[in-house]
TrEMBL record:
This is Uracil-DNA glycosylase. It is found in: Cytoplasm. NCBIfam families: PRK05254.1-1 (NF003588), PRK05254.1-2 (NF003589), PRK05254.1-4 (NF003591), PRK05254.1-5 (NF003592), ung (TIGR00628). CDD domains: UDG-F1-like. It comes from Marinobacterium halophilum.
Length: 237
């Protein structure tokens, strides 16, 4: 495990890899592979959220829980799936809210790379999962690592919008400095919760308005009709 492709994050995060909890996590993942368990995403994508969105370019943080656990879906960005994969239900609801909030046209894919490249940190709380076993890697150390990611954004970045959807994300972001950053809260966009207040939250227009007020370039939430980058790596590790 390394951050070779995420140099902006290295000063704050590389020391974590020497900590006992990360050594234990590494041993856990090695043992899972030795037991011939399929892990998503591929190891080359474990830190893709950090690689796609440098620390000094973060404008928006969206928190997910753990990666999708079916073949071909996960590639290291929360809520995002690889090109050619059916758009998951929660992302369908995100698209619906974008359409009503900003008149953004829903696309037929779920590849959110263009958001990440604009400064939207699409961070899962846990960065790996076992195939077909949601939450299998929770409590193994990833949560502490991603707490540090959020801490770095909170401390080193200015004027960031945190979109905290659901109680899990809201608990994770409890320590964010709200004098410095904008914290937006709503229910999770999953089909079970979206109608309880995610629909109509208008987080995307609120985010862009606030970024503009802070002198920052707003996010273009309109995804390209055709995914702009193919991911030519195995889907599992």
């Amino acid at each position: 495990m390394a951050l070779d492709k995420a140099p902006s994050w290295q000063p704050g995060l590389q020391p974590e890899f020497d900590q006992p909890y990360m050594q234990a996590l590494k041993q856990f993942l090695q043992a899972e592979k030795a037991a011939h368990k399929t892990i998503y995403p591929h190891s080359s994508h474990w830190f893709h959220a950090l690689e796609a969105t440098p620390l000094d370019q973060v404008k928006v943080v969206i928190l997910g829980q753990d990666p999708y656990h079916q073949p071909g879906q996960a590639h290291g960005l929360c809520f995002s799936v690889q090109p050619g994969v059916k758009v998951p239900p929660s992302l369908v609801n995100i698209y619906k809210e974008l359409a009503t909030d900003l008149d953004v046209t829903p696309v037929a894919h779920g590849f959110l790379e263009s958001w990440a490249r604009q400064g939207v940190l699409l961070l899962n709380t846990v960065l790996t999962v076992e195939q077909g076993n949601a939450g299998a890697h929770q409590g193994q150390g990833w949560e502490r690592f991603t707490d540090r990611v959020i801490q770095l954004v909170n401390e080193q970045c200015d004027h960031v919008v945190f979109m905290l959807w659901g109680s899990h994300a809201q608990k994770k972001g409890a320590g964010i400095d709200q004098h410095k950053h904008l914290v937006l809260k709503a229910p999770h966009p999953s089909p079970l919760a979206a109608y309880r207040g995610f629909f109509g939250c208008r987080h995307f227009s609120h985010a862009n308005q606030w970024l503009t007020e802070q002198g920052r370039t707003p996010i273009d939430w309109q995804l390209p009709t055709v995914p702009e980058m193919e991911t030519n790596v195995p889907s599992a590790s």
